[in-house]
Specification:
mainly alpha; elongated
Length: 256
């Protein structure tokens, strides 16, 4: 029979882990030095987790734009407003779908990679070796990956939006034979830079911080076994996806 302490630990465990994650974030922030070596490490991580995620983001963005255009045209034709397809597609991309879908793709591709890499370092005692040599592993390992996530995700979101608009152009103008002048004029008059585009970029910046923090934290605290690294990788995808959707609702409510 389960005891009261068992249920209490079930409730306090996530709270304690959240506190540990915040303390981990504070340790990373306090280890920022703005040195040349740290900048090089950040740039290297931007390439590894950002540039290498570019292909899947571009492919998914292009086909998301085509699917959105297909669905939007079918829905708007019922009201005789099919010429508004560009406005509907781009607004939904800039405000919601671009940041959210890019963040989910980033969590699945780059977040898991970061967690597995750091977890493997811990399983092979590389982190302990750094500590023995008086080298801060958080500054050398965790911080560059966290900053790279912050920088990479807004750039990937902008690329996702650009390819989605291209997909919408290909389907709406090339396949459905919509007038190109109407398509672009509705887009130019109905989209606002700060309200639509910049709001989505703020979301992607927050999502990048969430994914980067969760990935490095679970990798750094993973059990030094194969099963422990696998569990940490799974937890990264699950928790990152949930946090992305939760914070998307919070930020959308705040912006509107």
């Amino acid at each position: 029979m389960a005891t009261l302490g068992h249920y209490t630990s079930k409730l306090t465990g996530p709270v304690a882990q959240s506190g540990q994650c915040l303390l981990f974030l504070m340790r990373m922030i306090s280890s920022i030095r703005f040195s040349a070596a740290q900048v090089r490490s950040v740039l290297q991580q931007i390439y590894l987790i950002g540039a290498r995620s570019l292909v899947i983001v571009m492919i998914c963005g292009f086909f998301v734009g085509m699917v959105l255009s297909l669905q939007a045209i079918n829905a708007l034709e019922q009201f005789g407003a099919s010429d508004q397809v560009s406005l509907l597609v781009v607004k939904s991309l800039f405000r919601e779908l671009g940041p959210v879908l890019t963040a989910l793709l980033f969590a699945g591709r780059a977040g898991t990679s970061v967690t597995a890499e750091i977890g493997l370092m811990k399983a092979t005692n590389q982190i302990e070796a750094m500590e023995l040599m008086a080298i801060d592993p958080i500054q050398i390992i965790a911080l560059p990956r966290f900053i790279a996530s912050l920088i990479s995700l807004p750039l990937l979101t902008a690329m996702f939006n650009a390819l989605a608009i291209l997909g919408s152009v290909v389907f709406s103008i090339g396949v459905m034979d919509m007038d190109a002048g109407i398509f672009w004029s509705k887009l130019q008059t109905g989209i606002y830079f700060y309200k639509d585009f910049v709001g989505g970029m703020w979301k992607s910046l927050v999502f990048g911080g969430l994914v980067g923090l969760v990935a490095v934290f679970f990798g750094y605290t993973a059990k030094p076994t194969g099963a422990g690294v696998g569990t940490a990788t799974t937890n990264t995808v699950v928790l990152s996806s949930v946090l992305i959707l939760v914070f998307d609702f919070i930020m959308t409510s705040f912006f509107t």
